[in-house]
């Protein structure tokens, strides 16, 4: 359950999304939940359950230069930390629906691990011709991230301007999926996150 602090930072985020299309919440979940989630991601990695991510453009290994992360999709929560995360995201979607009338319905989410030196080239999360993904979310999980570690999310605000967002642990970035081109800059250390998308009811194409 969110406390008053979480509710008020959520309200600030709603305001930011309404005004600018995106929001950054610095400490979305308690540090111990973040570190449990990071441990789980590393656990999936060491049990061989993280899979090389592919882009819509290319399924072969040459896509490595476009996207270098390994992912693991979450199903129903199967740990207390995952339950806390999924509950918080569900509550966020309820507030987005109430405040911005987004009609969000489903949430899909995966762990992502970028090895040092790997990134994700500039892209849009909404696949061409599909309005399935309405809102993108990224929760950063790497402990003690230093600004010199790199690995920023570069969010293109328009043709000329971008904002670089450092992936400090506990930070949640939320943005409208159809609005922002973005990329992941390579880091000099492993970078761990949970990426998610809220989908709209009935938006899945046949
Ligand atoms: C993605 C993505 C950004 C990030 O997974 O589609 O753009 O900062 N991730 O991890
Ligand atoms: Mn993306």
Describe this structure in words.
The chain has helices at about 5-20, 30-45, 80-100, and strands spanning about 20-25, 50, 70-75, 105-115, 120-125, 135-140, 155, 160-165, 170-175, 180-185, 190-200. By secondary structure, the protein is α+β, with helices and mostly antiparallel strands. The strands form two sheets. Strands 1-9-6-11-4-3-2 form a seven-stranded antiparallel beta sheet, covered by helices on one side. A four-stranded antiparallel beta sheet has the order 5-10-7-8, with no helix packed on it. β7 and β8 (about 160-165) form a beta hairpin. α1 crosses α3 and α2 crosses α3. The longest helix is centred in the middle third of the chain and has 21 residues, at about 80-100. The N and C termini lie far apart (about 35 Å). The mean pLDDT is about 90. Manganese (II) ion (MN) binds near residues 123 and 182.
């Amino acid at each position: 359950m969110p406390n008053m602090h979480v509710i008020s930072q959520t309200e600030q985020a709603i305001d930011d999304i309404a005004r600018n299309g995106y929001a950054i919440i610095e400490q979305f979940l308690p540090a111990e939940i973040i570190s449990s989630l990071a441990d789980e991601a590393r656990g999936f990695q060491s049990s061989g359950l993280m899979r090389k991510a592919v882009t819509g453009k290319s399924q072969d290994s040459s896509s490595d230069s476009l996207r270098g992360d390994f992912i693991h999709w979450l199903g129903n929560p199967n740990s207390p930390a995952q339950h806390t995360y999924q509950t918080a995201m569900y509550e966020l979607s309820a507030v987005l629906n109430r405040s911005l009338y987004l009609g969000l319905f489903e949430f899909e989410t995966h762990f992502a691990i970028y090895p040092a030196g790997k990134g994700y080239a500039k892209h849009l999360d909404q696949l061409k011709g599909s309005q399935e993904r309405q809102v993108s979310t990224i929760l950063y999980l790497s402990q003690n991230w230093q600004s010199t570690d790199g690995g920023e999310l570069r969010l293109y605000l328009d043709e000329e301007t971008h904002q670089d967002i450092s992936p400090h642990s506990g930070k949640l970035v939320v943005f409208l999926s159809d609005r922002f081109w973005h990329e992941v800059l390579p880091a000099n250390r492993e970078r761990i996150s949970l990426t998610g998308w809220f989908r709209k009811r009935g938006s899945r194409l046949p």
